[in-house]
Design brief:
Layout lengths: L1 E4 L2 E4 L3 E9 L6 E13 L2 E11 L7 H15 L17 H20 L21 E12 L1 H12 L2 H7 L4 H16 L4 H10 L16 H12 L2 H15 L6 E10 L24 E8 L5 E8 L8 H11 L8 E4 L6 H9 L3 E5 L16 E4 L5 E6 L8 E7 H30 L7 H14 L7 E8 L2 E9 L10 E6 L6 H8 L3 H13 L10 H26 L7 H8 L3 E8 L3 E8 L4 H10 L8 E6 L2
Parallel strand pairs: 7-10, 10-11
Antiparallel strand pairs: 1-2, 3-4, 4-5, 6-18, 7-8, 8-9, 11-17, 12-13, 13-14, 14-17, 15-16, 18-19, 19-20
Helix pairs in contact: 1-2, 3-5, 3-15, 4-5, 5-7, 5-15, 6-7, 7-15, 8-15, 11-12
Length: 635
């Protein structure tokens, strides 16, 4: 029915109460049930939707009362009770009927709140705030669709971490601060080179539209300059974000988890100081490498990072890290437990840590000889996150400076046994090839050359060649026969066994095991940097740009970690790439409509999908970028 208000004709969505006759099958009693129905049209075709079940109230049997009750519910649902000049059906009802209408309306509100996954009830505009204009609906177009969900998520977290105020304190002007935030967020959402990032900002993302001072997307040269400028403040940036995350999430920091990794360069890097050949952890020994270390706490937040040459050894970086952290933490005591892997925990490093009074937990690079004699009780059986069986026991080593935790892993035992078997097969295949060469025309027959080939085979199978006796028969300086016998396989009790060392006192074996397992956080950090944030490979040819590339990835990681930590608190444990994919469903669109004398362009964010809305709710994001309206007047 059309209603006239302030000279405007508005047609509300029609509702009615449907009466359904029912018969009780057991007693044969006849009664009626009532449902509030909403009628609407889609492409000219009538449709109906159940809005609310009203039960079997007797006063609804009266047709006129049903009509007034319907109008009263419409007035409450559509919020038209207090419109000036509008007829109020709610006031015509008796007190008992008003109370029942109020109960039904409360039921409607509760159902709408609990069932947000269902389609919301269609409602007319709020007449107090609405603006009505006549448009030609056949001319409505939607264009310039750009991604905005992940960008808005990161920008709100950056504001919570007060990164903008930090940059301002370092002398960044307002425009430079916004460009710096754009650079960091771009690396988090679309990790790519500056050249591709500039294309993404122009063609795919609405990130630059979220900043007040930007009139267009920045070019790649502006991104290059800003990355280099941010790199100069990397240490201060890390310290600021670290302290703010600790305060934001009310966390207590007790562990320092330290590890070192490397990544490879594309290109020759002839003039580089950082790029060196070394042992690649990604099996890219054909490329020059750059190393970087990281200290994170047990929640994964970055505490410290440093970039080194690609051929630096893991163990040589530990003491420098502790020294630098102590210098930065002069105002507060550095009383944290250092957790590290076997490559860093050399005897010299552990000796220095003990002299300095530092506490540590690490995997021992060496085995404890005759460890069976230190086992005084049965081992404790636990399971890891993948439900694999693990046995642990704190050994009675009172005559040693450290406590030793014996660990036996069933899955590790199977893996190492399989590796030994494969190495034995590989070694025997190499010996067979050498033997065939003796009897083949043109093959290697000289005795010294044959022993050289056997030596190379032993070099490639260091762990198992001692289990073989090899004999070579010689005639006139040439080998005529090779034979070998297997003395026996490596003892199975060595497979799956390793040791954790610590100088902590008063901790049980399970507590030491839990502390050590926090090292998975730094492994997760490197995995996120290399996979989700694509810090590898490095394409830059100059060291200052290579350093800026890694630093920008580490800055983006700190925002990503803060977002993921809050989501993990609500049991959302998906990786960052999947979160970005989910958030990218929200777009910034331009809606164009023609009127009689002008054309209107509205730049507006689309409504979030349910998964996006859920993430926004967890993150406490309640507002979206405000729509921008532009008019084009016909001449």
């Amino acid at each position: 029915m059309p209603v006239v208000y302030a000279g405007i004709y508005i047609t509300f969505v029609h509702m009615f109460i449907r009466q359904t006759k029912k018969i009780n099958s057991k007693h044969g009693k006849v009664f009626f049930q009532y449902v509030l129905i909403q009628a609407y049209r889609i492409n000219g075709k009538s449709r109906q939707r159940n809005v609310l079940y009203l039960g079997s109230h007797k006063f609804l049997q009266d047709k006129e009362l049903r009509r007034k009750t319907t109008k009263a519910l419409e007035e409450k649902i559509y919020n038209t009770l207090n419109l000036e000049g509008a007829h109020c059906y709610y006031d015509e009802l008796e007190d008992e009927q008003k109370n029942q209408v109020d109960l039904w309306y409360a039921k409607y509100l509760k159902r709408e709140q609990q069932e947000q996954e269902h389609q919301h009830l269609s409602q007319p505009a709020d007449l107090k705030t609405a603006t009505f204009e006549q448009v030609d609906t056949s001319t409505i177009d939607i264009g310039q669709c750009r991604e905005v969900g992940a960008e808005w998520l990161c920008l709100n977290m950056a504001r919570e971490l007060k990164i903008g105020s930090f940059l301002s304190s370092k002398g960044f002007f307002n425009k430079e601060t916004e460009l710096a935030l754009l650079s960091v967020i771009s690396r988090a959402v679309f990790p790519a080179s500056e050249h591709k990032t500039a294309q993404w900002l122009e063609q795919n993302s609405a990130l630059w539209e979220l900043f007040d001072t930007m009139e267009s997307a920045p070019n790649r040269f502006a991104l290059y300059r800003m990355a280099e400028g941010l790199s100069k403040h990397f240490d201060a940036f890390t310290e600021h974000v670290y302290q703010n995350t600790m305060d934001l999430f009310s966390l207590k920091d007790t562990l320092m988890i330290y590890d070192l990794t490397n990544t490879y360069f594309e290109g020759r890097k002839l003039s580089s100081i950082l790029a060196k050949f070394g042992r690649s952890k990604e099996k890219r020994s054909d490329c020059k490498l750059v190393s970087f270390s990281a200290v994170v706490n047990k929640y994964g937040f970055l505490r410290y990072s440093r970039i080194d040459q690609g051929n630096i050894s893991d163990s040589s970086t530990l003491l420098d890290m502790i020294k630098e952290l102590k210098e930065k933490s002069k105002s507060r005591q550095l009383d944290k437990v250092v957790v590290m892997d076997a490559g860093i925990a050399t005897e010299d490093n552990l000796e220095v840590l003990r002299k300095n009074g530092e506490k540590y937990v690490c995997v021992s690079p060496t085995r404890l000889e005759d460890y069976e004699k230190y086992i005084s009780q049965e081992m404790t059986e636990i399971t890891d996150k993948r439900k694999n069986k693990i046995e642990i026991k704190l050994l009675d080593t009172t005559n040693k400076p450290d406590k030793w935790l014996l660990v036996k892993s069933e899955m590790k035992e199977k893996k190492e046994h399989s590796m030994l078997t494969r190495s034995e097969q590989k070694f025997e295949e190499k010996l067979t090839v050498i033997q065939h060469g003796i009897h083949k025309k043109g093959g290697t027959k000289k005795i010294n050359k044959v022993w050289e080939r056997i030596g190379r085979a032993k070099e490639s199978c260091k762990r198992i060649h001692g289990n073989y006796d090899i004999e070579v028969k010689e005639e006139k300086g040439k080998a005529v026969q090779i034979s070998w016998t297997k003395k026996g396989s490596a003892p199975n009790d060595r497979c799956g066994v390793y040791f954790i060392r610590t100088n902590l006192n008063g901790n049980t074996d399970e507590q030491i095991w839990d502390i050590y397992n926090t090292i998975r956080e730094v492994e997760s950090t490197f995995r996120c940097l290399k996979t989700d944030l694509r810090i590898r490979p490095v394409f830059h040819q100059k060291d200052k740009y290579s350093t800026a590339h890694i630093h920008l990835g580490l800055m983006a990681y700190q925002i990503v970690t803060a977002i993921r930590h809050r989501l993990k608190e609500h049991y959302i444990n998906t990786d960052w790439t999947n979160i970005v994919r989910t958030m990218n469903s929200q777009k910034m669109n331009t809606i164009k409509m023609k009127m009689r004398t002008k054309e209107v362009h509205i730049r507006k964010v689309s409504l979030p999908e349910k998964p996006v809305e859920h993430i926004y709710k967890i993150m406490g994001i309640k507002e979206f970028p405000k729509p921008v309206k532009k008019y084009v007047v016909y001449h």
